[in-house]
Amino acid sequence: MAPSIARYLRDDLGMEIIPVSLRAEDALGEKGYARLDEIPGQIEVVNCFVNSQKVGDIVDQAIEVGAKAIWMQLGVIDEAAAARAKDAGLEVVMDTCPKIEYPLL
């Protein structure tokens, strides 16, 4: 996750941030995981900071673990993945940034 956006979500909005990347890298002092199914507990929102060609796998993982929502960042667009998520009952936000959208709420 982009550090400035992750920091905003954690520090300004009070959200728990759990980094997920293929290398399972820690970020902002939080333990990193390689896959969503490695994270203990319920996942509310999966915020996707990957290119559009890779987001489908993350969406499928989010569906498998029972996440409640998927958020695809600016420029991340995959209509088929979004449809799969919606069909599975997830809320879907695509091609936008929470740091831009939350202040507008």
From TrEMBL:
Residue ranges annotated for the CoA-binding domain, each copy included: 4-102
Protein name (Swiss-Prot/TrEMBL): CoA-binding domain-containing protein
Domain of life: Bacteria
Pfam families: CoA_binding_2 (PF13380)
